[in-house]
């Protein structure tokens, strides 16, 4: 009981502090440590992560660190992308999908750690953390793209949403953390609605884990307002890198290489790979055009600063 409660507090702390990290820890904790059936663990995680994110969202919103319009559009398009990604994932093996998730997490975390170029010069520090005008095309495309990736791998949405909001949409780190919590709540509600139709909920277990996560998320939300954004960015980047390395260490096995070789040697294996590469190139081309055409403008002390 105490182990469960302690781990739940850590999950909530990560959600409140970084705006992500809860969902990818909740399911493994329930399955591998508490030996809960996988589907029951997933539906429990939707409740725990959703309520914890909602609790952490409140203090972020009070400090004005939630971009509501950007979050809603990102979340809605992300749901559509997750549906498409989930359908497309049926073409690939589970180990291959987790390897993809590991590569994405590792590269995203390294990009956040190595991106030393400042978005704002000292003389043009932003007054508002949210754009003056919501870049609907950019937010919708990035949400769909990230939703597609999370729909394929099934877990880890928060790990991709925060980097996407900072690196692609252009939000400051603190605003990205607050806005990501809104998106996680939306995704949790959608996932719970789907799973609740065919999976039962262990109410006593859910209540215990939720209580610990709510306590941790409240503490994490307070700490996020104290810690400097640069430290938050580095801490989040290190956490994403660690997750990517761990996932790759578990998914990159000799059996995966043998299965992939046999799969690619078949005609049916080459077709989805060719389709995936073509769609990826098309998405990257569209995304590049959108990010150039739909710029993000923040209010600043002297003149508006653009984020291309």
Q: Would you give an account of this structure?
A:
The chain has a two-stranded antiparallel ribbon. It has one domain. The chain starts with a helix and ends with a strand. It has twelve helices and two strands. The chain has 308 residues and is mostly helical. The C terminus is likely disordered.
Count of all domains: 1
Instruction: Average the pLDDT over all residues and give the rounded result.
Output: 76
Poorly predicted runs: 116-125, 301-308
The share of residues in helices is over 70%
The largest pleated sheet is described as: 2 strands, antiparallel
Order of helices and strands: HHHHHHHHHHHHEE
The dominant shape is: globular
**Separation, N- and C-terminal Cα atoms:** 49 Å
What is the assembly state of the chains in this entry? Answer: single chain
The rounded Rg comes to 19 Å
The count of helical stretches stands at 12
Number of strands: 2
Cross-sheet strand order for the largest sheet: 1-2
Structural class: mainly alpha
Strand content: under 5%
Question: Which labels suit this protein?
Answer:
disordered C terminus, mainly alpha, 308 residues, 76% helix, globular, 2% strand, two-stranded antiparallel ribbon
Task: Give a quick summary of the entry.
The chain is mostly helical.
SSE blueprint:
Elements: H1 2-18, H2 23-33, H3 38-62, H4 68-88, H5 94-114, H6 136-153, H7 157-169, H8 173-195, H9 203-224, H10 229-251, H11 254-265, H12 267-293, E1 296-298, E2 305-307
Antiparallel strand pairs: 1-2
């Amino acid at each position: 009981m105490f182990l469960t409660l302690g781990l739940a507090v850590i999950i909530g702390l990560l959600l409140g502090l970084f705006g992500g990290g809860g969902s990818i820890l909740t399911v493994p904790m329930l399955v591998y440590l508490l030996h809960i059936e996988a589907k029951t663990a997933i539906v429990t995680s939707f409740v725990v992560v959703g309520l914890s994110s909602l609790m952490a969202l409140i203090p972020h919103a009070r400090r004005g660190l939630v971009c509501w319009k950007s979050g809603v559009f990102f979340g809605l398009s992300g749901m559509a992308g997750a549906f498409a990604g989930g359908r497309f994932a049926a073409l690939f093996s589970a180990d291959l999908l987790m390897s993809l998730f590991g590569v994405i997490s590792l590269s995203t975390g390294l990009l956040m750690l190595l991106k030393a170029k400042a978005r704002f010069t000292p003389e043009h520090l932003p007054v508002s953390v949210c754009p003056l005008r919501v870049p609907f095309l950019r937010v919708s495309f990035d949400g769909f793209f990230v939703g597609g990736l999370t729909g394929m791998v099934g877990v880890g949405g928060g790990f991709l949403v925060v980097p996407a909001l900072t690196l692609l949409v252009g939000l400051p780190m603190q605003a990205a953390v607050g806005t990501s919590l809104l998106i996680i709540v939306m995704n949790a509600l959608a996932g719970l609605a789907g799973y609740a139709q065919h999976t039962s909920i262990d109410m006593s277990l859910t209540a215990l884990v939720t209580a610990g996560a709510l306590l941790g998320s409240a503490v994490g939300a307070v700490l996020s307002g104290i810690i400097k954004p640069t430290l938050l960015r580095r801490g989040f980047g290190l956490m994403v890198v660690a997750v990517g390395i761990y996932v790759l260490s578990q998914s990159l096995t000799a059996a995966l290489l043998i299965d992939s070789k046999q799969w690619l040697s078949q005609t049916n294996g080459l077709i989805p790979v060719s389709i995936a590469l073509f769609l990826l190139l098309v998405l990257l081309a569209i995304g590049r055009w959108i990010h150039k055409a739909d710029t993000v403008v923040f209010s600043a002390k002297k003149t508006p600063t653009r984020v291309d």
